[in-house]
Write a structure and sequence with these properties.
CATH topology: Amino acid/polyamine transporter I
Number of domains: 1
Helix content: 55-70%
CATH superfamily: Amino acid/polyamine transporter I
Oligomer: single chain
Shape: globular
Number of helices: 21
Order of helices and strands: HHHHHHHHHHHHHHHHHHHHH
Radius of gyration: 23 Å
Strand content: under 5%
Number of strands: 0
Largest sheet: none
CATH architecture: Up-down Bundle
Structural class: mainly alpha
């Protein structure tokens, strides 16, 4: 048992049952930058434009505002949660307060796996841009060999992940400083790019209302190929919860994190949407096959429109965006691993939750995440089809983990148990008020529809290159089912019996009138303390222990 303390932790972390062990140094812009860099429009839009365009042509751009509206509903729910629980591993910790221990662990498990795979996918984006900047970046072969493109991508991505590991392991101050500078460069570059492309517009907006023959021969016509193309937008606009995942390291997080979440998703929508709009309107020739090719895409349009020096200057900014996006994805994955490990909810939890006493960052977790992210990249060399499946699945897992928050949140709204009252966590930093219920309903409907669209076993996504095997096409369904069922069994059969906040991370809980005998501290649960205002549910009814 912990000894009762005479005073509470001034950082506010004792409200959630944890001691303040991380470095609280992140300001408002750095918090906003974390969300923006994770979404990273210059990374995602430039990396996936070719795919959306090749599927549905110019009209695929309509998917951008559609995805934004859906994700904004989710972001509003997250902002409300961030205003109450700005804790590391945000989705995992939110699910703990809304649902059962099993659901919370599964939310963290799925998001952790997806973040590790996403880290490799983001770093691979360097292969699309760097060789177009300078042929010397094509380190492996000359780019014409059967494996040159894939192998070189793995080399560049591995170098990037190694650099990201070193920066994240050094401390959050260095990471956020680099990230903030990179995001500032990215935002300025995005605005200048929009102005430059807008100046070179050669066609009118009617092109967005012309299906241009796309969808002919498809079972669902243009709607069918539009749903596929829309995945290019769905693959970009997520990760805004990163601002809250860094909440333990943010100043005044209950007010800062919600604003950062909403500003990040809104700014990304506006800038990304205008780049798509003017990029398509300024393209010299929309029938150019390079626009729909992996080694061309939006980069090809920029180089064609702006010419060598100016075009390449913008490509440099895209590289900067990829770098800071890698840093942000890595940082978010580290916080998720740390949050689960300090609750003793992972193997080797004591090591993974260890915080460097000088740098005040989970150094071991940073290294482990980096190593694990490189392993799937090796698959990309000989079997790019498998890596494509893994990359697609990583996004499915993110949407599923979000549903594991929005669904129980909606359930509590229907039961009149949200928003919580008199919960002992002080004033909430953000509330939707009467709009909470309709927004939450839309967030759940959107998340379910998008998950179904992403996981649907389409050959264009899961079996696009040889060898054409049934298990590749159904790879998304099979893998998601395996990690979900396997993760649930792992938690139910083993991990839940060891769950409890590790002693070195547990807050000293002061004596409380409701604690029974005078002077006796209340038990610390993995749910985040005893004053979280949420009654135990399902397997949370089992008392937790302090390790």
């Amino acid at each position: 048992m912990l000894e009762p303390s005479k005073s509470t932790d001034s950082s506010g972390m004792d409200e959630f049952g944890y001691a303040q062990t991380l470095d609280r140094s992140i300001g408002k812009f750095a918090s906003f930058a974390a969300g923006v860099s994770y979404i990273s429009i210059l990374t995602g839009v430039f990396q996936l434009f070719y795919f959306g365009f090749s599927m549905a042509g110019p009209a695929y751009a309509w998917s951008w505002p559609i995805v934004f509206v859906g994700q904004l509903m989710v972001a509003l729910c997250f902002a409300e949660l961030a205003g109450r629980y700005p804790v590391a591993g945000s989705v995992y910790n939110w699910a703990k307060r809304l649902a059962s221990g099993t659901s919370a662990w599964l939310a963290g498990w799925l998001l952790l796996l997806s973040s590790i795979m996403a880290l490799g996918s983001v770093a691979l984006a360097l292969q699309i841009t760097l060789p177009q900047l300078w042929s010397g970046f094509q380190i492996v072969g000359d780019g014409t060999g059967p494996f040159d493109f894939a192998m070189n991508g793995v080399v560049l991505a591995t170098i990037m992940i190694t650099i990201s590991t070193l920066i994240n392991a050094f401390g959050v101050k260095l990471m956020t400083r680099i990230n903030s500078i990179g995001v500032f460069v990215e935002l300025v570059a995005a605005v200048l790019l929009i102005l430059a492309l807008g100046w070179h517009v050669v066609r009118g907006p009617e092109v967005f209302f012309d299906t241009a023959g796309f969808g002919e021969g498809h079972d669902l016509g243009f709607f069918g190929v539009f749903l596929i193309g829309a995945m290019a937008s769905g693959y970009v606009m997520y990760g805004f919860d990163t601002a809250s995942s860094l909440g333990e390291e943010t100043k005044d997080p209950k007010r800062t994190a919600p604003k950062a979440i909403l500003r990040a998703v809104t700014a990304s929508f506006l800038l990304g949407g205008l780049i798509l709009l003017f990029g398509i309107l300024a393209a010299p020739d929309l029938t150019d096959p390079k626009i729909g090719a992996a080694d061309g895409g939006l980069q090809h349009i920029v180089l064609s429109v702006l010419g060598g020096p100016f075009g390449k200057a913008f490509l440099v900014c895209i590289v900067v965006a990829v770098v800071v996006c890698t840093l942000a994805v890595h940082a978010a994955a580290i916080r998720m691993m740390f949050a689960m490990a300090r609750d003793n909810n992972l193997p080797f939890s004591r090591q993974l939750s260890k915080v460097d006493p000088v740098r005040k960052t989970p150094t071991i977790a940073a290294i482990v995440i980096g190593v694990l992210a490189v392993i799937p990249l090796l698959v990309n060399v000989m079997q790019p089809a498998i890596f494509t499946i893994l990359s697609s699945i990583s996004i499915v897992l993110i949407y599923l983990s979000y549903l594991l928050v929005t669904v129980p949140m909606l359930r509590r709204r229907f039961l009149k148990k949200w928003p919580l009252r008199d919960e002992g966590h002080g004033e909430a930093g953000f509330s939707m008020g009467k709009w909470g219920l309709p927004v939450n309903i839309l967030a759940v409907l959107w998340g379910g529809a998008m998950t179904l669209n992403l996981i649907w076993p389409r050959p264009e996504i899961y079996n696009s290159v040889p060898p054409f095997e049934w298990y590749f096409q159904w790879g998304g369904v099979l893998f998601v089912a395996a990690v979900t069922i396997g993760g649930t069994l792992l938690y139910r059969l083993k991990i839940r019996h060891q769950t409890g906040v590790l002693a070195e991370h547990a807050a000293a809980v002061a004596a409380h009138p409701s604690s029974g005998a005078a002077g006796q501290p209340q038990p610390v649960r993995a749910g985040g303390g005893t004053e979280d205002g949420v009654e135990p549910m399902e397997d949370d009814l089992e008392p937790q222990r302090v390790s």
